[in-house]
């Protein structure tokens, strides 16, 4: 099987990457492909850099698991994405239920962002500074950060990250950015406001958690990415998976091949799309069955680490 990363680099992209967590890193059969830098030359940690994992109680930071992922990734010559600094989910209750006032939550936020970005400085290439801050209709998600601080929580997080590591890339990451919709419009407007206020943002990440047979067309995906790029940022596809309604049939696997091809081709067609990260690589480990009952088989390799038609859909796109 050809190496996806090698093909992507030859075609002018930075990477094809994988999300990975410490659970699957214990599985040596899984790690044969996961460790092949010709296949995946970029890594995003699935869970171990999230707030609940890194600051489970106030100002007590735990980096052991994340360090293991980062050291493995970098020692094999892979690029690292940080995921994620500010998110309403997997947020410990000492933050989400705190009733901190504005000043206290601002300092908690600054301390968290600064400590993580400094700890991984020189190792993480780009951070998902914010994750999922808008609703589908483009209104603000009512997180503890937004409710307590207002929109400026975004400025505060991006400014703290930039100060902690002036050379790191700074992204806002979200799902449902695959199409022209109200959420895309909210990001375009936000990037413009941030830039007008002198806040550095270098990228918008499109998670791309898609449903096979219902993915937007190539034209729509490209125009969504281009609309973001027009604000002066790079884009990346950050958590690509394309779930199938079970049971699996060969017709559904062929449809999934087309859908993977479309999504990866969309990134290829946009010069400022830096790369594609898949949300794992094998159906053995995927968040999909646990989160979307009745769906599964969302990744390009099957549970026995055998390439599915979807894998060749990616190859054809590169
Ligand atoms: C998921 C992980 O894969 C799961 O293991 C965890 O239980 C929940 O979070 N968007 C994101 C990711 O940005 O961090 C989420 O990852 C999936 C949705």
Automatic annotation (TrEMBL):
Active-site residue list: 239 (nucleophile)
GH10 domain mapped to chain residues: 1-317
Cell cycle found in the keyword field: no
Location(s), subcellular: Secreted
One example GO MF annotation: cellulose binding
Predominant localisation class: secreted
UniProt keywords, alphabetically: Carbohydrate metabolism, Glycosidase, Hydrolase, Polysaccharide degradation, Secreted, Signal, Xylan degradation
Catalytic activity from the UniProt record: Endohydrolysis of (1->4)-beta-D-xylosidic linkages in xylans
Taxonomic superkingdom: Eukaryota
One record GO biological process: xylan catabolic process
EC identifiers of the protein: 3.2.1.8
EC class (word): hydrolase
Entry GO terms, CC: extracellular region
Similarity section: Belongs to the glycosyl hydrolase 10 (cellulase F) family.
Protein name as annotated: Beta-xylanase
Residues of the full protein shown: 87 to 404 of 410
């Amino acid at each position: 099987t050809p190496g996806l990363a090698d093909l992507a680099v030859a075609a002018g992209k930075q990477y094809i990457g994988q999300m990975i967590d410490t659970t699957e890193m214990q599985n040596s059969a899984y790690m044969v492909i996961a460790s092949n830098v010709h296949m995946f030359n970029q890594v995003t940690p699935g869970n171990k850099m999230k707030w609940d994992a890194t600051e489970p109680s106030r100002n007590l930071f735990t980096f052991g698991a994340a360090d293991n992922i980062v050291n493995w990734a970098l020692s094999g010559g892979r690029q690292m994405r940080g995921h994620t600094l500010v998110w309403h989910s997997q947020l410990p209750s000492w933050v989400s239920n705190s009733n901190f006032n504005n000043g206290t939550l601002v300092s908690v936020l600054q301390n968290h962002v600064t400590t993580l970005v400094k700890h991984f400085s020189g190792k993480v290439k780009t951070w998902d500074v914010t994750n999922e801050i808008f609703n589908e209709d483009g209104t603000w998600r009512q997180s503890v950060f937004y409710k307590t601080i207002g929109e400026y929580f975004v400025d505060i997080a991006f400014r703290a990250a930039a100060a902690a590591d002036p050379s790191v890339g700074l992204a806002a990451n979200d799902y449902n950015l695959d199409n022209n919709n109200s959420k895309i419009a909210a990001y375009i407007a936000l990037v413009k406001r941030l830039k007008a206020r002198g806040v550095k943002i270098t990228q918008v990440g499109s998670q791309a958690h898609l449903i096979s047979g219902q993915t937007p067309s190539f034209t729509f995906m490209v125009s969504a990415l281009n609309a973001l790029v027009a604000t002066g940022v790079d884009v990346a596809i950050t958590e690509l998976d394309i779930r199938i309604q079970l049971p699996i049939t060969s017709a559904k696997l062929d449809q999934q091949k087309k859908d993977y091809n479309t999504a990866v081709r969309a990134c290829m067609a946009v010069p400022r799309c830096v790369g594609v990260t898949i949300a794992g690589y094998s159906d053995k480990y995927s968040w999909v069955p646990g989160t979307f009952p009745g769906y599964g088989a969302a990744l390009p390799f099957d549970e026995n680490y055998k390439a599915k038609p979807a894998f060749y859909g990616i190859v054809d796109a590169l």
